[in-house]
Amino acid sequence: MTHKKMLSRTLFAVLMSAAAFGAQAAETTGFYAGAGAGQSFVDEASYDDEDTAFSAFGGYQFNRWFGLEAGYADFGQLEPGIAGADLEASSVYLTAVGTLPFTEKFSGYAKAGLQRWDLDTAIPGLTGTADDSGTDPTYGVGLQYRFNDAVALRGEYSRYEIEDLDADLAQLQVRFDF
Asked: 141, 154 in Cβ contact below 8 A?
């Protein structure tokens, strides 16, 4: 089993465990939305670059431990290390989010799901990447600090698989609960 598949399955098992455990709790539910900014990183094939990235997301927190989140991530423009075309990538995703509260205001979370990626052009030189869009897994981890019932600051590191290419996204996000 490849490292990616093992990590994806492990994250999925953790999230499902959190969902089963969290189904017994009845606290902090409702819709939320937010936005983030940070850096995207690609270090595979002929691409070894980073750029400013942005994201917007929204979701529903079923209880203190489990939620579903949908969002959009723009990875910016990535330049190849050698001759070739610049690459602009974006993703629309749906993930399950398992949260582990450490204190009343501070928590950690893991998320995993599927994403629909879109490139402005196909990636040259990668086996199996003849298309400029597709569906692959995404997963990530983060820390969240809640200032009050309505606003939280999150630090997140996520990976977006794009066929044979992995795009990583490190960012700060602001979350607003309704």
From this structure: no
Classify the C-alpha dihedral 75-121-130-85 as positive or negative.
negative
pTM of the predicted protein model: 0.76
Domain 3-177 has CATH 1.20.120.10: no
Higher pLDDT, 87 or 161: 161
SS3 content of the chain, % helix, strand, coil (to 5): 10, 65, 25
Residues 75-122: tens digit of each pLDDT: 888 776 666 667 788 999 999 999 999 999 999 999 999 999 988 776
SS3 26: coil
What does the domain layout of the chain look like in residue ranges? 3-177
The 3-class secondary structure across 110-152, one letter per residue, is EEEEEEEEEECCCCCCCCCCCCCEEEEEEEEEEEEEECCCCEE
Tokens of 52: 């400013």
Express each pLDDT in 16-29 by its tens digit: 554 444 433 334 78
